[in-house]
């Protein structure tokens, strides 16, 4: 029933660079499930007919998506069907345990085009404005008209691909994974996920500004080809380092009590072994 939905979803991962990270989402979600194997084994088996209701609702969403040619609805209904199957076969305890891996799969689904455009264009304007201020600060004559930056020797258009939404989506995924493995506290994980938004915007602003500086010093060719692609990788790495610095800052200011107690216990065990 979902074969065509899955095939088109994988095809979007392949052709849309904004969602190429989708290939990693399913294996990571499966790892999260495997990590919960002990809890699943201990959970009480209590099938629920509520799962049938959830499955029927998801299938109705699938039908609405197919009839309305709305890919987002058909893809989201996949997750509802998975959750309904878990609930119907195993019960509420299993669903609670598997809720995070199932919700994590949302990251593999491209957001609707109407929402994507509503996010991308403001990001283009923010990046353009940031680049204008940065170029003016270093003494480079610049004139901005919307998302077009006019320099003395060339003009740069902050297109949709340079809006930063691609790095924002990828960094959000990375931030959720990073927070999951680095800290068990829910509020810290939420901070990591939310922090990826300003970090991605700031990093992309530096990228556009750096491209403007290079175009002014070298020429229009500096804003194209290898340099443009390479700068994207460098800025994404810088954004990740900013996220890592945030993690170290939180760990320094508000240490994890559980991790601290484990460290003290480990030190006490080593001291005891030394005395023996």
Secondary-structure blueprint:
Elements: H1 3-15, H2 22-35, H3 37-42, H4 50-67, H5 71-89, H6 92-104, H7 113-137, E1 143-145, E2 148-150, E3 155-157, H8 165-182, H9 186-217, H10 225-253, H11 257-275
Antiparallel strand pairs: 1-2, 2-3
Helix pairs in contact: 2-6, 4-5, 5-6, 7-9, 8-9, 8-10, 9-10
Description:
With 276 residues, the protein is mainly α. The protein has two domains: 3-108, no CATH class; 113-256, no CATH class. 75% of the residues lie in helices and 3% in strands. The protein has helices at residues 3-15, 22-35, 37-42, 50-67, 71-89, 92-104, 113-137, 165-182, 186-217, 225-253, 257-275, and strands at 143-145, 148-150, 155-157. Strands 1-2-3 form a three-stranded antiparallel β-sheet, covered by helices on one side. Helix 4 (50-67) packs antiparallel against helix 5 and helix 9 runs antiparallel to helix 10. The longest helix has 32 residues, at 186-217. The termini are far apart. Mean pLDDT is 83; it is low at 263-268.
């Amino acid at each position: 029933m979902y074969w065509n939905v899955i095939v088109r979803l994988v095809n979007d991962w392949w052709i849309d660079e904004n969602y190429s990270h989708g290939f990693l989402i399913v294996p990571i979600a499966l790892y999260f499930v495997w990590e919960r194997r002990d809890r699943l084994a201990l959970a009480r088996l209590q099938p629920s007919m509520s799962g049938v209701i959830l499955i029927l609702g998801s299938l109705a969403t699938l039908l609405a998506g197919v009839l309305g040619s709305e890919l987002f609805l058909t893809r989201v209904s996949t997750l509802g069907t998975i959750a309904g199957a878990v609930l119907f076969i195993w019960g509420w305890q299993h669903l609670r345990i598997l809720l995070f891996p199932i919700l994590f799969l949302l990251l593999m689904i491209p957001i609707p085009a109407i929402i994507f455009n509503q996010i991308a264009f403001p990001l283009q304007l923010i990046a353009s404005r940031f680049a204008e201020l940065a170029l003016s600060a270093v003494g480079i004559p610049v004139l901005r008209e919307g998302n077009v930056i006019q320099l003395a020797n060339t003009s740069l258009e902050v297109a949709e691909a340079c809006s930063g939404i691609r790095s924002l989506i990828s960094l959000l995924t990375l931030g959720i994974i990073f927070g999951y493995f680095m800290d068990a506290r829910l509020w810290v994980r939420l901070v990591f996920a939310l922090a990826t938004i300003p970090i991605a915007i700031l990093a992309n602003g530096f990228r556009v500004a750096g491209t403007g500086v290079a175009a002014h010093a070298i020429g229009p060719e500096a804003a194209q080809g290898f340099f443009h692609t390479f700068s994207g990788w460098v800025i994404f790495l810088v954004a990740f380092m900013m996220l890592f610095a945030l993690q170290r800052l939180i760990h320094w200011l508000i240490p994890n009590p559980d991790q601290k107690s484990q460290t003290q216990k480990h030190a006490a065990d080593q001291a005891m072994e030394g005395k023996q």
